[in-house]
Design brief:
mainly alpha
Length: 74
């Protein structure tokens, strides 16, 4: 397992809201620009993992809604 995967492995356990809130914090830190290049890269990688987790939650919710709508049509 790569170091990035190990560092961000906990992201898979986060709720949508927790991942979204942390992503907002990561973006704010990156926008401030007062961290080292290495820290910026770690934040970027964390942000990518958080964004992916949010997308998984949203895709799952979208699929459930579509299934519910299709179920009512039948």
């Amino acid at each position: 397992m790569s170091e990035e995967k190990k560092t961000n492995a906990d992201v898979a356990d986060l709720s949508y809201e927790a991942a979204r809130d942390e992503l907002v914090q990561v973006v704010a830190q990156l926008e401030q620009g007062n961290v080292t290049l290495e820290a910026s890269m770690a934040l970027w990688e964390r942000g990518e993992a958080l964004a992916t987790q949010c997308e998984k939650w949203l895709s799952g919710a979208r699929a459930r809604l579509n299934a519910a709508v299709e179920g009512k049509k039948a």
